[in-house]
Amino acid sequence: MSLTTFLQQCLTGISLGGAYALIAIGYTLVYGILRLINFAHGDIFMMAGYFMIFAMASFPWYISIPVVLLVTVLLGVSIERVAYRPLRTAPRMSVMISAIGVSYLLQNLATYLFTALPKGYPEIPFLKKIYQIGGLSASFVTFLTPVLTLIIVYGLIILINKTKIGMAMRAVAKDYDTAALMGIKINRIITFTFAIGSLLAAVGSVLYFTDRMTVFPFSGSLPGLKCFVAAVFGGIGSIPGAVIGGFILGLGETALVAMGYSTFSDAFTFVLLIIILLIKPTGLFGEKTTDKV
Amino acid sequence: MKLKKVFAITLSACLSASMVAGCSTGSSSSASGGAKVIKIGAFEPTTGENGGGGLQELLGMRYANKTHPTVKIGGEEYKVELVEVDNKSDKTEAVNAAQKLVSEKVSVVLGSYGSGVSIAAGQIFADAKIPAIGASCTNPQVTQGNDFYFRVCFLDPFQGTVMANYANDHGAKTAAVITQLGDDYSSGLGSFFKTAFSGLGGNIVSEEQFQTNQTDFKAILTNIKAQNPDIIFAPSSITTAPLIIKQARELGITATIAAGDTWENSTIIENAGTSAEGVVLSTFFDEAEPANEEAASFISGFKAYLKENKQDEIIPAVSALGYDSYLCAIKAIETAGSADGSAIRDALKGVSIDGVTGSISFDENGDAKKDMAFIKTIENGKFKFLTTTTVK
């Protein structure tokens, strides 16, 4: 393998990892607060793809992107309101089943509304500009994805550690009932968490689909599953963990395909999941949880 | 008293009408009262990976059902009911869907789009003694060793050879092949291309595989780019195609990209945009050159039907094949003069029709005797007919 090929593969891997990381954060945030694996997250990501297609049909990109971010946040928040909030006191299993239901609902709704035929993702001119550096050739979005991911993660960590609402989020994550007793409005915090998660899914969706160009009703399911693995690998509940998990997954997958083992590229993701569950069930950066009585 | 009289007259009218219907060839469908129904199963994916293409094939069948709503068995008019099941592009679901058709007691099955699901369901139809007519499933294994499976399209060995010949004729010396893991259509066609291309003195420099629902092909394309082939043969689903095409062009690969029949679908042009220019593919049907009268009337009628169903007004080849498979089924039922599966199967062996994709008759394997393929390219955002190829 020549150096150019190697660098090109690395670039692909890092870019894929960046998109994975953004989605994985969505899983981790919601899990951190609600102890819920939001299985519909991958489908919110898919819906954001469709929103972009429709937004770009009538607006230029600089209006479309904010519109898509807003609509996706509304979708995420309303899913929480309709499908999860009524189950707040129900056993955790019920909420998870509700999440699986929402996931199927979104997939089938998309099939019904937009047909199963893949739809072309609109081109955002400046993101799609192709740059050549030596033998490397890639569009701007490939370079942008990992950088933007790191900036967003930095911002998010500041938000959680330094702001008032961040403190409230940490409190809710630590102890639900005590936080409520201290006057924190639990529902508002949860809504806020879902809003951030969906926002990141929307950003991830713009980056991911600009690079991959087609959206169909199931395009959220496999990335969703992989990002869930990334979140678990990094230690679910931990934001840096999710990011590192995302990058490891993206790079590992690309490396396997590059070496000619594409047969095992999906298996890699899930083998990784099994190994981490066996060796370090809390993930790389996961905290040891003590059962609350 | 009066009532009785009316009743008697009506009864006698009915009887005589049915006798007329029984003897003459006239179409007095009112006489049969629409009571007799024969069921034809449409075994197609309308969701899942091949949902888009499956729906197009199904539209061809629905349209055929609209233009040929009845069939005569032994002089009696039967209404044809199309029983649709969704096999969800999934081999496990395909088996369930096939069992549903069996329990619905259909006389013939049409489909499916995608060879894998057809192979999976083939044994079920054979066990239930229900003949099946595949429309666009091109893998040899669909009909091999299965006495009840027929098909109206050409086969992958043929298609692979056609594309290898095309590549060779246009000066390609090296080729790369990209196939989908676990997909009988893709891997089958890819390997037939490889054999044929090597046989013609060409050199396969790279073989890459990808997973179902994979959306990132940059890694395998980077490997291919390093080998710099003259042509890339990538038989795959229409979901995958635009991704491969666009990502290849993005990485600066300039080789011709070629594929099989699945790629003749306007969504590919729509999604891949200008990157799709120059893509070459083989297909079953060309709407610019109707093979016969049936084809000419199909083209005008089906375009209006597509418009009604809010689809693009470009006739997909699979719709034409879906239509033809229906015609074969009707003809076989008429010839057999029975709704019994085995009888229809025997009749199918001798059936010969002028379908919209050319004349169709079956060989001893149940495959259509077809020796012609259309080669098309994408130019200025449209499929353009290049040449027809025959392989002996």
Automatic annotation (TrEMBL), chain A:
It is a multi-pass membrane protein. Its main location: membrane. The keyword Cell membrane applies. It is found in: Cell membrane. The chain crosses the membrane at residues 6-29, 61-83, 95-117, 137-160, 189-208, 228-249, 256-279. InterPro entries: ABC_transp_permease, BCAA_transport_permease. Belongs to the binding-protein-dependent transport system permease family. LivHM subfamily. PANTHER family: BRANCHED-CHAIN AMINO ACID TRANSPORT SYSTEM PERMEASE PROTEIN LIVH, HIGH-AFFINITY BRANCHED-CHAIN AMINO ACID TRANSPORT SYSTEM PERMEASE PROTEIN LIVH. This is ABC transporter permease.
From TrEMBL, chain B:
Residues 38-381 form the Leucine-binding protein domain. Gene3D superfamilies: 3.40.50.2300. Pfam families: Peripla_BP_6. It comes from the Bacteria. Residues 1-21 form the signal peptide. Keywords: Signal. The keyword Signal applies. Belongs to the leucine-binding protein family. This is Amino acid ABC transporter substrate-binding protein. The lineage of its organism: Bacteria, Bacillati, Bacillota, Clostridia, Lachnospirales.
